[in-house]
Design goal:
By secondary structure, this protein is mainly α. It has one domain: CDP-alcohol phosphotransferase transmembrane (TM) domain (Four Helix Bundle (Hemerythrin (Met), subunit A)). Helix 2 runs parallel beside helix 4 and helix 5 runs parallel beside helix 7.
Length: about 210
Amino acid sequence: MFDARLRPLIDKPLNAVARRLSGSGITPNMVTGLGFVFGLLAAAALAFRLDHIALGLILLSRIMDGLDGAVARHTQPRSRHAGSKSQESDLGGYYDIVADFLFYAGIILAFAIGRPEHALMAAFLIFCFVGTGSSFLAYAIIAAKTGRNHEKQGKKSFYYLTGITEGSETILVLVLICIFPQWFNHIAAIFGALCILTTIGRVMQARRDFG
């Protein structure tokens, strides 16, 4: 819901860092990989109930997640595709989205490992993530087939369908469960319900656009 509004604020510092990294040999996929490693370390910290360490690692992971695209846009192309103007690639987009969804589910799984008394609500939240993720990716597949394009969220490797719960809101929830782990069930219930509404809205949007 807030991704498009936050994008102009986020892009400026990320682009500044990416320009400094230009020519350093650091590739977008390296940045994606580093962000994923930070995410795995965050999950491990949560499993051991090291919440403040997990919080820092989550924020580092998400900074890397935003930085990889900026690095791609500011690095000389090495693509095998003729006419490529940057290192942005379909494979890079693929790595990015796979890493994102594994990260989101992994953090919730790790929380449940560390606090098994919250396992039921953790399972519910992961179920809700599957709904938002599948409705998002399925729409992107059909949008690509029909030639739809939209760069409201910034230049992306594929179509980004908006919703109530997007990346910004999900990151906020992960931050909140690190700061207030005792409130996990309430946070998961509220955010899970919003994820369900997002999934329903995306299905209805797909019905309007593709039906």
